[in-house]
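Archive transcription. Copying these from loose printouts into the bound notebook so they stop getting lost. Printout 1 of 2:
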Amino acid sequence: MITHVSKTGSPNMVDISDKQPTLRRARAQARLYVNDEIENLLRAENLNSPKGPVFDTAILAGIMACKRTPELIPLCHHVALQDCNINIQFSGQKEILIECEVKTVDRTGVEMEALTGASVAALTVYDMCKGISQDIEISGIRLIEKKGGKSDFGNGE
């Protein structure tokens, strides 16, 4: 069942007014694949590019994006986030892994916030490195895990 479509077929915000607030948590990830030039520069320059500290800037951008998700995704509820953590690291040769975890106690989940945070953090890494090379691929944006609400998803891997 598609939840954001009314019985008449028009867009519809889901009514969560009867739900009880519970702990909600979601983790999402994105992967970036960079070329040798970008990897070598970031590793040699302590994760800095000519634009500044790449991973630190991407973490801030991702957190800001989580907080603004309802402004970006139609029909998302405003959720008071209690915690948001973004981890960015090289996970292999020429591969950067971004993970975003978001928590709240609310009536609806935070999957969209986690996905938005990971996505915007990845876009920020791209933006900060594109002057070096545009040979960058963003892929694998996905929900890893969600807990709370009607159903859980994922096993934390």
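Printout 2 of 2:
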Amino acid sequence: MTHYEVLGVRRNASTSEIRAAFRTLARAHHPDTSDAGSGESLAPINEAWRILGDPVLRRAYDRSLDDSTEPATNAPHRDPSPVYVVAPPESSFPWRFLAGMTVVGIAIVLFGVFTYQPSKPPPPDNLLQAGSCVIIEENGDASEVNCDTDHDGVVQSLVTTADQCPVELEPHRDRQGLGLVCIRFDV
């Protein structure tokens, strides 16, 4: 029995006619929708659709049917069912792309290294805190300066005017009058 006979269509039927016949038969013989359906009755229908639904497989199947209807000759016997060998898809890792992206990344890093210029430190905000570099003005007030310039000392702590600085630190008035700063002088 040919696949065309299984689906109940003519040999010159269109793909849409074959699809419609397959769907009708599949519904009728499917085990979930029919009491008479079983996996064994659905298998030839699925196989017929697999062959006839694919244009390449259908052409090969039609050729095999044509070969089997020719009169026997002294030619060697041909198997009516075509054998299809499908090679697995070749998978490869994109090494060239990865190498290219590595080179681009290295170039970006090197460009950044050679063009980097450190930014200037921000100007002092004149709010003294521990770690601020200061100069002592003529009137004895402490005024903040950048630490990369000449400075007299570094603020160790801030205290109120009622408190006193530790013995090893020298007290000076905050320029803004907010209290006393305890300064360690550079030696």
